[in-house]
Amino acid sequence: MRTFPDREALASALAEEVAEALRNAIGDGGEATLAVSGGSTPKLFFHALSKAELDWESVTVTLVDERWVPDTEERSNARLVQEHLLWNEAARARFVPLFIDANSPEGALPEVQQRVADLSGPLTVAVLGMGDDGHTASFFPGGDRLEDAIDPTGKALVLPMRAKAAIEPRITLTLPVLLAAKKLVLHVEGEAKKRVLDEALAGDDPLQMPIRAVIRNAREPLEVAWAP
Ligand SMILES: O=C(O)[C@H](O)[C@@H](O)[C@H](O)[C@H](O)COP(=O)(O)O
Predict the structure, then answer these.
(1) Residue nearest (by alpha carbon) to ligand 1 atom 9
(2) Ligand 1 probe mutation, 37, 67, 189, most atoms within 8 A of CB
(3) Any idea where the Glucosamine/galactosamine-6-phosphate isomerase domain is (predicted)?
(4) 172-191: pLDDT as tens digits
(5) Residue bearing the CA closest to ligand 1, atom 11
(6) Is 64 in the pocket of ligand 1 (CB under 6 A)?
(7) I need a labelling partner for 216 at 20 to 30 A (CA). Which of 53, 140, 164, 178 fits?
(8) What ipTM score was computed for the predicted complex, to two decimals?
(9) Phi/psi of residue 37, nearest 5 degrees
(10) What is the pTM of this model?
């Protein structure tokens, strides 16, 4: 775990690293893909990253997970990304949302799955957040599709997820898609989440604390960026 003195320092260091990974991928193959999380933690990071100088036209931005609400709603992760990341330099990036105008994520699954399949190759970068219950992406304890979503050998790219703590139905990239990212980072802030992470590291059951599925299956030790 890398500890930063404050959230601003974390945001600018993480933005610079992510920008560098995107630049490298663009240099190698001409394209880069970035999957980001919703929630409250990423805003400062988004602001810093939006100012990074790179060939944003070659970057596709998508989400690690989405709440099943249109982007006119405050809780939409797409809205968060549009308002906080896709401006300044990053306004030139292409955005691939996980929400489509359908009644349920279950009904939309084939179309969203196709969108994700159409992204070129593995994700260049995925930035995860974590909730106080040890969820990450939409891998919620008690989620109806949790076991499938965190199956490291699963074939699905995206899955719907319903859980009490999730409020709305959700759709999420699956564990194998996240693990395949060339750079995978967990961005967490505050003492409470540090304790949650310690608890996750001290135990085994990923159904209880799904962040464990990422920690245990990551190809390299999971990069964690933390600030108080
Ligand atoms: O849509 C979401 O809610 C997420 O992508 C989710 O997995 C998030 O990263 C954590 O819940 C942390 O959220 P906070 O940053 O708000 O604590």
Answers:
(1) 129
(2) 37
(3) 5-216
(4) 999 999 999 999 999 999 99
(5) 131
(6) yes
(7) 164
(8) 0.96
(9) -95, 160
(10) 0.98
- CB of 189 shorter than 6 A to ligand 1: no
Residue with tokens 């159904």: 207
CA torsion, points 85, 125, 159, 131, in degrees to nearest 10? Answer: -70
DSSP per-residue codes, 74-111: TT-HHHHHHHHTSSGGGGGSEEE-S--SSS-HHHHHHH
State how far the Cα of 12 lies from the Cα of 45, in Å rounded to an integer. 7
- Give the pLDDT confidence of 123-159 residue by residue, as tens digits: 999 999 999 999 999 999 999 999 999 999 999 999 9
Question: What does the block give as tokens for 160?
Answer: 């719907």
Residue 101: how many other CB atoms lie within 10 Å: 6
| Token duo for residue 197 | 């992470």
**Which atom belonging to ligand 1 lies closest to the Cα atom of 128?**
9
CB of 190 closer than 6 angstroms to any ligand 1 atom:
no
Going 210 to 212 to 215 to 216, the CA torsion angle's sign is negative
CATH number at residue 103: 3.40.50.1360
Evaluate: CB of 38 within 6 angstroms of ligand 1. Answer: yes
Alpha-carbon gap, residue 222 to 19, rounded angstroms: 19
Residue with tokens 């139905």: 169
Domain limits for position 160: 2-227
Task: Judge whether 209 and 199 are in contact, CB under 8 Å.
Answer: yes
- CA distance to 7, 134, 143, 191, per residue, from 227 (Å): 5, 17, 29, 8
